[in-house]
Please model this.
Amino acid sequence: MNALEIRNLSKSLKGFKLDNLNLTLPSGCVMGLIGKNGAGKSTTIKLILDMLHKDSGTITILGKNNDDNIQLTKEDVGVVLDEVGIPECLTAKQVGKVMKYTFRNWSDEEYACLLHKFSLPDNKQFKDFSRGMKMKLGIAVAMSHGSKLLLLDEATSGLDPVVRDEVVEMLNDFTRDETHSILISSHIVSDLEKLCDYIAFMHNGKLLLCEEKDKLLAEYGVIHCTAQQLGEIAPSAVKHKKESSYGVEAIVLRKAIPTNINISPISIEELFVFMVKEAK
Amino acid sequence: MKGLLLKDFYMILKYCRAYLIIIAVFILASFLVNDDNLFFVFYPCLFSGMLPVNLISYDERSKWNEYSGTLPYSKSQIVSGKYIIGLIVQIIVFILTGIAQAVRMNMNGNFELNDYLAIIAMILFMSCVSSSISLPFIFKWGVEKGRLANFVTIGFIFAGSLIASKLFESDLQTEVTFNVIMLPALCILGIAIFAFSWYLSTVFYKKRETN
Model:
């Protein structure tokens, strides 16, 4: 079963259009939704949760259409938004009590364990938490009610590198169970590169690409060569090039490159920047 | 929906203590003023009606209004949560105000059941109407735009009341008279306005997108 299936999803908003989006997130996998601000990542997540009403298309979450009793489906979905959204005056302890009456499968033990693991104080108000602590509390809530799918909207942005690493580690732990899946959006590509099995690039409301990360990394590479060497390569294999007085740097299709040219691994960030430039 | 109510209860305890104190002070002050002045009697009911609006305002500030959309609550449950928490507070204030009014009239030695029932009916009406006008606007447009629409509506109602009182040359505040038909009708009208407001807010909020 797929954790998430999006088919032909469209939505028009003032000055923005999400255009015919198709995505499939298999169970047990992590998909990174990469795009610059305003690309449509948050809109996609809100449409999945029916916080925005779609113009057309279908969304299936954990095998259930999101038009059918979405409240019940949300019992199995943990969500962390960019600004978390927990009332500022509430303490972690009070948040636990509120969520106990919100989710049928809420686990006090799991929540207490996560608070301890993240070193989050019980009785400090949410407004006094740092950005990292706020995000960790949001994640603790999202993971304490037996969620099978996590939807994380910019959950790692604004965090310091140490906290970001902890969050990524925690999400890796979550996906050890093969029934657990994550859709995480971010414009910080390096975080997603560590975490994701699938990468989806979005730009101006359109999906540029959705592919397995390893396949992408196996397919594309970076070469550093002279202009003359580049001329020997089939033009269709050169996806992007940057020339300078020191030589040429190019993003290429690995399989079409002669063996005498050394190919370096490409990063997802390099690939993303290239795709966005191509789309312009 | 228990979770929504518990969250609002925590917020009232934290943010609305001043409200509760002001309401208590006004109820106590109603003992000290003369019988003709019903301002201190009616004000706590009007004031308590502002509580749900303030809770929504805090929700918007903390982005809870977005976050609640990710939780397993329907939009009608989210709306109902605010009406129910408002109703609980208003029932408490209504009971306290009613008791205070009875005590005051007894202390002044002028307790008349007809007069008392007339005041109680007006308190009930005001309790029902105080939040009913603003909440549908706020659920439709959010607190900022909703408050503006609310002020405009209240302005129209106030102007309408002034014109009506001029036309009938009656002073509702000092010459409340018992009427077998009028008082139950006033109570039913208040409850009907409250119920319609609840329905309208639900319709508006279901259409509203959390963006």
User: Anything to note?
Assistant: Chain B touches chain A through 28 residues (CB under 8 Å). The mean pLDDT of chain B is 81.
